[in-house]
Every structure is written in structure tokens, then in C-alpha cells.
Amino acid sequence: MCGIVGYIGKQEAAPILLEGLKALEYRGYDSAGIAVFSKKREILALKAVGKVASLEEKILSQKKPLSGGLGIAHTRWATHGGVCEKNAHPHSDCEKEIWLAHNGIVENYAELRKALIKKGHVFKSETDTEVIGHLIEEEQKRGGAFEEAVRRALKKIRGTYGLAIFNAKEPEKLIAARNFSPLLVGLGKDEYFIASDPSAVIRHTRDVIYLRDGEIAILSRGGFRIINLDKELVHHAPQTVNWTFEQAQKGGYKHFMLKEIFEQPQAIENALRGGGLEVLEKKLGRIERLVILACGSAYYAGLAGKYMIEEYAGLPTEVDVASEFRYRQPIIGPKTGVLVISQSGETADTLAALREAKRKGALTLGIVNVIGSTVAREVDAGIYNYAGPEIGVATTKAFISQLTVLALLALFFGRQRKMSPVTGQRIVKELKNLPALVRAILKQNNEIKKLARKYKKYSNFLYLGRKYNFPIALEGALKLKEISYRHAEAYAAGEMKHGPIALIDKNFPSLFIVPQDSVYEKMISNIQEIKARGGPVIAVATRGDKKIGQMADDVIYIPKTLEMLTPIISAIPLQLFAYHIGTLSGCDVDKPRNLAKSVTVE
Questions:
Q1: Is 597 a catalytic residue?
Q2: pLDDT digit string, tens, across residues 538-590
Q3: Which GO terms describe its cellular component (predicted)?
Q4: Catalytic residue (one of 51, 397, 479, 597)
Q5: DSSP characters for 74-97?
Q6: Considering 2, 173, 306, 591, which one is annotated as catalytic?
Q7: Is the domain defined by 444-588 classed in CATH 3.40.50.10490?
Q8: Which residue among 6, 63, 83, 394 sits deepest, i.e. has the most Cβ atoms within 10 Å of its Cβ?
Q9: Is the pTM for the entire model greater than 0.90?
Q10: Coil, strand or helix at 34
């Protein structure tokens, strides 16, 4: 949510900032803006509602070019104040000397704003962000360096922030500050970058420092230093981003989403090479209960993981929506393991739940995709799923990687507890075979597109599954909602008769996930109940299943694998089905309306 880019160096800032904003578009936004300190010592600031392309058009149409080596830029996802130019970032102080871009929420902005107005400050926007600029302005009146005014101002703020700030009176400095909102410093030669994530700077540097909460980075062309809110110097070793600029490009595909769907065989192979729990093997052997915390698709992956872990390890497992975990007085103790799942490693609700679990004394684990992210740093042990950059807002390969890692986790816990060597060997063999099975499904892309064309006319869908594939029904429905704006509901198939069946008629298709597994016959009964009421049926079924072919209106066939691994296989055709309905409907599948890739505010 929101994207921040900053630059200080010898190059022209504006092209670098625009390039960075384009790389961050996938995070979700509704407006964009830029501010550059020019070579003539002027501030050139522009804002636009809509896409970054609209901002770029404004820049190109200016008689006075945005020329200078210091600047900040921002994409806004509205929280306080409507979607309009005056609320777009960057914001400034009264004198238009201090400029800042902000990601986060200032919780005490109303009381701060009221106090500042009493002191004569004039506000131009409805945002909480503008308070920060005026606070810094007020602190500067007390004297001292610019960074000291920033530090004092930040100590008065309650809430979250990722900030990029500069001051026209001290143009040799660019300041970054973080508190519960992701922000990094990119390290170049006599130049430095600020960004919400590496994709904005990867073309210029792969060496980055991820700021921690309560830290302030002071950047200049000659170097940088990092302090905390107590003025203490902080030192961090730079990290190298483990992917390249080319990997974050479409590479010949029409959309990032399609590219990432087709990258899933490699993503599974990468996930299978992961590790990370060995350092806590003995402690993990002593836990008596596992709690999985996640949001969105990661939550659905966690639900599938619960089935895997309980069946193969006999370890009691529960799954919570991370945003609700803190509000139900969870029973957590030293023999509880808490596993958080987050693609970005920066999901605000998941981080808050993780910190609550740590406060209660739990042993904490993480499944994350972004190396060096906050979740990765704060858990006791973690597993990277190594999916590579995922630019499409609706997750595909990261979700499949999470499922793969959860299967490995079930294997890990199972070997510690009750699993026989023969069972373990069989799971390993089937895991290694998964990339080939996924490639076989991807070969059906054209057939699935034809199916999507047939069902594009429908506005409502019901997704149904049981056991391992109930979470995949949830994920399939979410995908369709996200990228085609269709109404889709998902239920455990046994719940169909408890309400949803009232919706069924010839205009309400049902999509069943019905592999030949332990609940196959019950799913067959559910299909018959839908057909008896005239509802169209699409089935995702095991290759060679002739019974399904006689019952369903349309069938997508998937290869046979272990029951615990069917979620990984059955999710693929649902991704393609949603993708094609979205594209055939003219939707922006890479950047769906109102959505953000990384939800960094609660």
C-alpha cells in the first residue's frame, strides 16, 4: 500500500523516481506525486490523480523541466482524505521548504493538527501525513540540524510511518525514517536511494539496508549514517537482493500474472531447496500445538497446511486470520509454536499478530518470500519460499510456494513424531514430481481459456471443495473476485445444503474441486444435488475420471498425486480460469482496482 521512492546523487532524480514509481505500481494506489530540488535551488512539485502515466504526462508538459539530483516521489492509496490532487503526496510545511512522502497512519493526527493550527500553521490537505511536515517545521524553530528536527517530531507521533524527507535549506541531505512500515536504503556509488521495496531500485543497485522500526537514515552524496530515536548510531550490514531487474519484467508475457503462473514449476523447485528450521529442531520437537497466522491467500494456504500437519505429524494445529488473533485473548504458551505466513514479510496485521505471540512466549516461525523482511528478522526461525519477485497483485506463485513449504513442514514435523520412513520417502518422491505435474496442467491453458470464454457471461459463481481442497475453493473464489470483479463464494461442500443451495439456478455456475481422494463419493453427491436444480457445473477432476465427465458440464483434468499435495495441483487451473475471465472482461489483472500487493497498514 503506497509506494515511496527517494534519490540523492549526481544523476537526474526525476527519471529515477518515475522509474521507481512504475516499479511500485503493483502495490496499489490512486494518485501519484513527485518533488525535486532543482539546480536553480527551486522546489518543483507535481501531483496527479490516477496512474503514474498521468504524472509522467504532466512532467513532460512542463515548460520548466524537473532537473536536479535530489527528490522524492510517492504513490498514494487513500486512507485519510479523498482521492484528489491536494491529498496526493509529497506534502510540505507552511513555507514549502520541507517536503515528505509517507506510507502509514498517524493515529494522533487530529490532536496534533489542532495544536499546530493554534500555533498558526495552515493546512492544505485532508491527510494525516501533512501533520508531519508542520511538526518538523515547528521543531526546526528550536534550532539544530534538520535530522534533529525530524527526530524530535517523530517522537511526538503515534502510529506507523515510512518516510522520505528533504529540506530546501539543507539540500545536501535526504532523510528516511521507518516505524512499522517497510523502507530500505539502496546503496550506490556517490548516490543513495530510498524505496518501499527493492523493485524500485533494483535497476541501479542490489545492495540494500532494510531499516528497522524507530530508525532514521541521513543520506548525502558522500555517505550515510543511521540513528535511532534516542540519537544512538546504528550499524547494519548491507544485504544483496537475490533477484535481478530482468526477473521483475514481463519477459514476453502479456501480463505479470500469466508469467508468474507459468513460473510455478520453477517456484516449486526453489521452495523444495529451502531450509531454515534445523537451528530449532530440538525445540520444535517439544511443541505441543501449532498456531498458523496469516491474511488473504496466505491464510488459505495455512488452512491447507493444517490438514497436512495434523494428518502426517499428529500435531494439533489451528489457523487464525492474523487481523483477529490479538482480539480474542489467544491461549499461547512456551509449548505453542506460532507460524506466520506472509509473501512480503511486511503485512501489518501479520506482524502485529507475530509480536503478540512473541510477547506471550511462543516459539515463532515464518514462511516468507522477501529476504531481509521484518517477519524474516523477527521470527525465531524461518523458511524462505524463494518464489522470486511477484509483481501481480493477486498472488499465484508465492501461494503455490507457500503450499509447498507447508508440505515440507508437515514432513519435518511428521519425521519428528509419528511418520514412518516409507511414508516420508513417498512424500519426498511426490514432492519432487510436482513441477512436472504443474507443467502438464499449464499445457491446458488454451482449453481453460475457451472455458473462461463460455463462462464469462455469468456474474455469480459458487466454489466447493472438501478436506484438502476446501481451502483451494476459497482461494479460487478469491482469485475470481480479485481480478474479474465477479461475485464468487466458496464453501466446504458439506455446507452447501445449509444455505448456499438456495442460490442455485441455471444462471449460477458451481465449480467443484473433486479429485479422486478420500471424500470423492461425497463430492459426487454434492454435484448431483446441484445438477438436480439446474445449476451449471465445472469440475476440476483427476485425469481418467469418466464418472465426472458424465455428470459435469465441463471438466478440467489434473494429474493424480498424493491427497495431501492435491491443493498444489488443483489451484493451478483455478488461477488460469480467473486470469482468462479477467482478461476477456477487459480487467487490469496485474493491478486490480482498490487492491494493494502488500497491506502495510492495519
A1: yes
A2: 999 999 999 999 999 999 999 999 999 999 999 999 999 999 999 999 999 99
A3: cytosol
A4: 597
A5: EEE--SSS-SSGGGSSPEE-TTS-
A6: 2
A7: yes
A8: 6
A9: no
A10: strand
